[in-house]
Write a structure and sequence with these properties.
Layout (H helix, E strand, L loop, with lengths): L16 H10 L1 E4 L5 H17 L10 E3 L10 E5 L6 H8 L2 H10 L3 E9 L29 E7 L10 E3 L36 E3 L6 E5 L4 E2 L11 E8 L18 E3 L20 H7 L8
Antiparallel strand pairs: 1-8, 2-3, 3-4, 4-10, 4-11, 5-8, 5-10, 6-7, 6-9
């Protein structure tokens, strides 16, 4: 597996032209140890508190998916939706920090917050079988009028090749957009094996940044959330942002009340449409069922 070095130094809180160029060409960027120590401590405390709160649950809900070995004594969530609702510190960081400055430098100046996620990585698979743990492109889960959007991962602890981590194919964001659906058009949340011949999987790159780092990647890049790991990884906060003039083709009902908040710049006066269009499944509602792990009907 390749290891492509990316520039990581920031200048006065905004990205350098070298970093922006790297992101445009490769579809990802790592900002190593960019989170100040005091903020890192606050974000770790938020993650611990949210994890501890899941101990009261005995079954998965629309907001929290639990692992089979979950217990009140040892909480084992797989993911928690919308932690920005649960932590003022997290929302402050997601909405006004060096993170949002960097996001605006890549897809701004007008930026919309989409959602947040507390993500628990497991060597046995994030979603225990099918789902986002397979090779996929995130745009497929969030079809919208244009594809200016990105995903960020906030690393609270060191990543390593042995611990569950993200693996991606540099440059794949500039190539084919895959349907993520079966032959009947049903959304399956993954790239079909028949399409692997069109992807340079031999060039896949493991992202293993240290604690305090932020990883950013384009919504179109081909990646896998837990390929080749032998150990569980540390939880990380995830968030998705789009250009403010990118409008989803279907209301996103899984988001918090802050979904759609303009965190940089101004609200748009009109939508912007990508000339090539964005592939959509036969039934957009299937996407949210996939994202929620099948719990979207649970209050």
């Amino acid at each position: 597996m390749n290891r492509l070095e990316a520039p990581t130094a920031l200048r006065t809180g905004v990205l350098t032209e070298n970093q922006r160029r790297f992101y445009r060409e490769n579809g990802y960027l790592i900002l190593e140890r960019i989170i100040p120590d005091d903020w890192l401590g606050r974000l770790r405390a938020a993650a611990r508190g949210i994890t501890a709160d899941t101990a009261r649950l005995s079954a998965s809900t629309r907001k929290v998916a639990l692992r089979p070995d979950h217990s009140a004594e040892t909480p084992k969530p797989a993911w928690v939706w919308n932690p920005d609702e649960d932590s003022d510190d997290l929302w402050s960081f997601l909405s006004d920090s060096v993170l949002t400055d960097a996001v605006a430098d890549l897809i701004g100046p007008d930026v919309r917050f989409y959602y947040s996620f507390l993500f628990f990585r497991h060597a046995g698979g994030v979603y225990q079988g099918d789902g986002c743990g397979a090779w996929h492109q995130d745009y497929a889960y969030f079809p919208q009028t244009n594809l200016d959007g990105l995903y960020v991962g906030i690393h609270l602890e060191d990543a390593s090749p042995e611990r569950s981590h993200t693996v991606l194919v540099p440059g794949s964001h500039r190539k084919q957009l895959f349907d993520h659906a079966d032959a009947e058009g049903r959304f399956r949340g993954r790239i079909a094996k028949d399409d692997f011949d069109h992807i340079a999987l031999d060039n896949a790159l493991a992202l293993t940044p240290p604690a305090g780092s932020i990883e950013i990647f384009d919504l179109r890049i081909v990646h896998n959330d837990d390929a080749g790991a032998t150990e569980d990884g540390a939880p990380s906060f995830q968030a998705l942002y789009t250009a403010a003039d990118a409008f989803p083709y279907r209301s996103f009902t899984l988001g918090s009340a802050r979904h759609g908040t303009i965190v940089r710049g101004r609200p748009p006066l009109r939508a912007r449409h990508d000339p090539e269009g964005c592939p959509v499944p036969r039934d957009l509602a299937e996407i949210e069922r996939w994202l929620s792990g099948g719990f979207e009907d649970i209050p």
